[in-house]
């Protein structure tokens, strides 16, 4: 085949040498606009896994690259007058110019033609090529030419950064955060040869403009940064090799995703590679890794399907299918890290203490978890756990195992919780006439013995017409109150758990069948009138609700207050008002379901007016020493609906009205929603509201392991974790997860003590067997 690589960066060079090495009959040309052995940029970072892949792909270049690498294990944070360090992270760095020079020499040795100082305008300049590799960077002209086919999605991110270097060799991957009168600046610093380090400085647009950096030339920007980071530079100068850029050389990062990676131009197959196809933020240093992995996978697919022209289309389809998955994974982690740095000032740096800020920074991409940190640096993590426990009021003796964050106590108003895990409200639809029955007693009693600190029943309705289905719980009469007292007494008699109630009204989503008879489907008979913020059905064939008038509002408010008083009399210790998932109060908050033109519709203040009225009345009726939370849908996942920014506005309103905690869920407001699911997918909402609004939060959604909960709590992303489906599968989830991570001091019900030791022993045996298998 005749192969042309447009762009002589890592992707083009590495693909060229791999294809020539594996099939010498190929005629391979790499075309680069710069001069021979010349490049821009400073250092790049690799992982051990990347090096292993390169050793397999081309041992010769891998050996030379490894000889040039600088290795370090430590990460150091400079923040608020402190220096903190952790080890075990395993980075390797090399100068970008040195890396490309090695690849260029390897190409020449194998017989790849290198063409320099040629600026390619179009792929059509190579009509005899069978395969054209568009590796011409994030501003790819080739991709732009076929934009309709490649479907590029380019987003310019808000932060500014400048990529510099310094003749000072840092012995750790160093992050330096500096606060100025206009905002925070952070430096990402790492060594890539014996005397030189990369020095990337990043800040917000507000700080950039506040300091007038856009009005400076490069030298002015460098002098500003040298003064700001003088303590860390310790006399060293900052250097640039981007004098070709005009102005101050501050850039915005461009996030790129393409819908398709290859096209046939009529004569040649054209495929995107490296930054031309996708970008990953420097916060996790994976741009070069992605480029090299692209090259390795494409060469591997040719090995698998055949190095001939007739196989190109099959190869390119397989290449894209495989790489798209790994790229999405890396881009997701890079997005998490990038967004952390974009909001670091207002969300974390201003509010978190140095130890927790460091933990948050280390776990910013969500690829590193609590237990992964323990594997990397047990000493550091156990020191952090000791600090976290001390803040929770636990004094741990030297030599004793420190409880992980999820098992530390937490106090809200006058209520003390034994740990940070709660059983989330989960609808069982098994009541008759709203009454708790033997099923609920067995169901919730089992979970009360399972180690969680707070037990919630399902949403409990404040009137008969507030029910979602005929099987919903209620609290509108004396019989229901008596059964709630029965539940409270049971929970208190079997362990340390406290009891919470979530009060709600179904609104437009009411009068439906129980889910196993047709989820969200309207009742065939025995239904009741519905009310909502506006006269909009949930499904096209759902029962039409009536838009509430003032009389309706008065009645509903009074129903909530009456149920609140009954809950308090029954001994319930935590009250939550349900303002999420498209139910009645939620229908006022979302512009999708609130089309009113009176004082209860339109602005945030108007849409929140009635829910806040209900909340304030409930707060006045609820004992002052008992906590009260609000469950919010923090994202409607639909164009025109509420976003996390809207949720933060509402959270601030409820905080001012007396809410102690915001329970951060999302969705179920509009049937055509398109949620983006994934591990911990709703935790960012709790993080935003906790750290920007300044109110405690509950994280909920796809939290299934102790490692998840500990990571969330330790980083200060939430104060409590609500576990739902895992608690359905395992009533003793908290006890079992504690045992799985080696916590043996947690109390089990005395009736079950004979099983505790055996359970822990079996876990230890399984872990030992797995470790032995891994060592083979």
UniProtKB/TrEMBL annotation:
<dbReference type="Pfam" id="PF00724">
    <property type="entry name" value="Oxidored_FMN"/>
</dbReference>
<protein>
    <submittedName>
        <fullName>Salicylyl-CoA 5-hydroxylase</fullName>
    </submittedName>
</protein>
<feature type="domain" description="FAD-binding">
    <location>
        <begin position="3"/>
        <end position="146"/>
    </location>
</feature>
<dbReference type="InterPro" id="IPR044152">
    <property type="entry name" value="YqjM-like"/>
</dbReference>
<dbReference type="InterPro" id="IPR001155">
    <property type="entry name" value="OxRdtase_FMN_N"/>
</dbReference>
<dbReference type="InterPro" id="IPR013785">
    <property type="entry name" value="Aldolase_TIM"/>
</dbReference>
<dbReference type="InterPro" id="IPR036188">
    <property type="entry name" value="FAD/NAD-bd_sf"/>
</dbReference>
<dbReference type="InterPro" id="IPR002938">
    <property type="entry name" value="FAD-bd"/>
</dbReference>
<feature type="domain" description="NADH:flavin oxidoreductase/NADH oxidase N-terminal">
    <location>
        <begin position="408"/>
        <end position="734"/>
    </location>
</feature>
<dbReference type="Pfam" id="PF01494">
    <property type="entry name" value="FAD_binding_3"/>
</dbReference>
């Amino acid at each position: 085949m005749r192969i042309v690589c447009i762009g002589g960066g890592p992707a083009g060079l590495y693909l060229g040498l791999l294809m020539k090495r594996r099939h010498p009959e190929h005629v391979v040309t790499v075309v680069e606009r710069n001069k021979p052995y010349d490049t821009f940029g400073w250092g790049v970072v690799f992982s051990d896994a990347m090096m292993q892949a390169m050793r397999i792909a081309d041992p010769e270049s891998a050996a030379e690259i490894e000889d040039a690498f600088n290795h370090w294990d430590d990460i150091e944070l400079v923040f608020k007058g402190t220096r903190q360090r952790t080890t075990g992270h395993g980075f390797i760095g090399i100068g970008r110019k040195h890396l490309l020079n090695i690849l260029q020499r390897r190409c020449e040795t194998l017989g790849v033609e290198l063409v320099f100082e040629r600026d390619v305008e179009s792929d059509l300049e190579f009509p005899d090529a069978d395969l054209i590799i568009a590796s011409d960077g994030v501003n790819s002209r080739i991709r732009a030419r076929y934009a309709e086919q490649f479907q590029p999605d380019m987003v310019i991110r808000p932060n500014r950064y400048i990529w510099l270097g310094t003749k000072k060799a840092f012995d750790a991957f160093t992050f330096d955060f500096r606060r100025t009168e206009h905002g925070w600046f952070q430096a990402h610093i790492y060594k890539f040869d014996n005397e030189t380090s990369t020095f990337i400085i990043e800040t917000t647009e507000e700080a950039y403009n506040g300091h007038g950096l856009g009005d400076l030339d490069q030298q002015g920007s460098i002098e500003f940064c040298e003064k700001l980071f003088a303590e860390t530079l310790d006399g060293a100068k900052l250097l640039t090799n981007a004098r070709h850029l005009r102005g101050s050389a501050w850039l915005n990062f461009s996030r790129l995703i393409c819908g398709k990676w290859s096209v046939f131009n009529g004569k040649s197959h054209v495929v995107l590679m490296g930054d031309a196809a996708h970008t990953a933020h420097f916060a996790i240093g994976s741009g070069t890794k992605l480029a090299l992995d692209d090259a390795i996978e494409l060469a591997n697919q040719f090995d698998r399907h055949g190095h001939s022209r007739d196989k190109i289309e099959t190869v390119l389809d397989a290449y894209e299918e495989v790489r798209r998955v790994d790229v999405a994974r890396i881009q997701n982690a890079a997005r998490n890290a990038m967004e952390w740095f974009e909001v670091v000032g207002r969300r974390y740096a201003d509010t978190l203490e140095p130890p927790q800020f460091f933990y948050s920074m280390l776990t910013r991409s969500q690829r590193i978890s609590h237990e992964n940190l323990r594997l990397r640096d047990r000493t550091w993590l156990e020191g952090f756990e000791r600090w976290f426990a001390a803040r929770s009021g636990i004094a741990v003796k030297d030599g004793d195992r420190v409880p992980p964050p999820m098992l530390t106590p937490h106090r809200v108003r006058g209520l003390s919780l034994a740990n940070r895990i709660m059983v989330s409200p989960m609808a069982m639809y098994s009541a008759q006439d709203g009454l708790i029955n033997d099923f609920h007693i067995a169901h919730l009693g089992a979970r009360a013995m399972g180690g969680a600190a707070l037990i919630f029943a399902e949403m409990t309705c404040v009137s008969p017409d507030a029910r979602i289905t005929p099987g919903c719980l209620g609290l509108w009469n004396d019989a229901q109150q008596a059964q709630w007292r029965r539940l409270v007494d049971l929970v208190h008699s079997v362990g340390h758990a406290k009891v919470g109630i979530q009060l709600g009204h179904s609104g437009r989503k009411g009068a439906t069948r129980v889910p196993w008879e047709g989820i969200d489907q309207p009742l065939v008979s025995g239904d009741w009138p519905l009310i909502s913020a506006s006269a909009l059905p949930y499904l096209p064939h759902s029962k039409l609700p009536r838009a509430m008038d003032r009389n309706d509002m008065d009645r509903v408010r009074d129903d909530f207050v009456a149920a609140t008083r009954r809950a308090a009399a029954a001994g319930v210790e935590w009250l939550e008002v349900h303002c999420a998932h498209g139910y009645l109060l939620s229908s006022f908050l979302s512009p999708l379901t609130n089309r009113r033109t009176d004082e209860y519709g339109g602005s945030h203040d108007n849409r929140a007016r009635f829910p806040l009225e209900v909340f304030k009345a409930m707060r006045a009726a609820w004992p002052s020493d008992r906590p009260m939370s609000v469950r919010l849908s923090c994202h409607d996942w639909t164009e025109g609906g509420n976003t996390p920014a809207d949720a933060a506005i509402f959270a601030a309103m409820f905080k001012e009205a007396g809410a102690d905690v915001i329970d951060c869920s999302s969705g179920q407001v509009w049937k055509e929603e398109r949620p983006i699911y994934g591990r911990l997918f709703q935790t960012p909402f709790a993080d935003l509201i906790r750290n920007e609004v300044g109110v405690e939060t509950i994280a909920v959604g796809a939290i299934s392991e102790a490692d998840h909960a500990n990571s969330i709590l330790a980083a200060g992303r939430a104060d409590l974790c609500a576990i739902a489906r895992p608690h359905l599968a395992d009533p003793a989830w908290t006890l079992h997860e504690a045992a799985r991570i080696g916590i043996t001091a947690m109390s089990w019900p005395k009736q079950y003590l004979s099983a505790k030791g055996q359970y822990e022993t079996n876990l230890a045996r399984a872990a030992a067997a797995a470790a032995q298998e891994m060592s083979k």
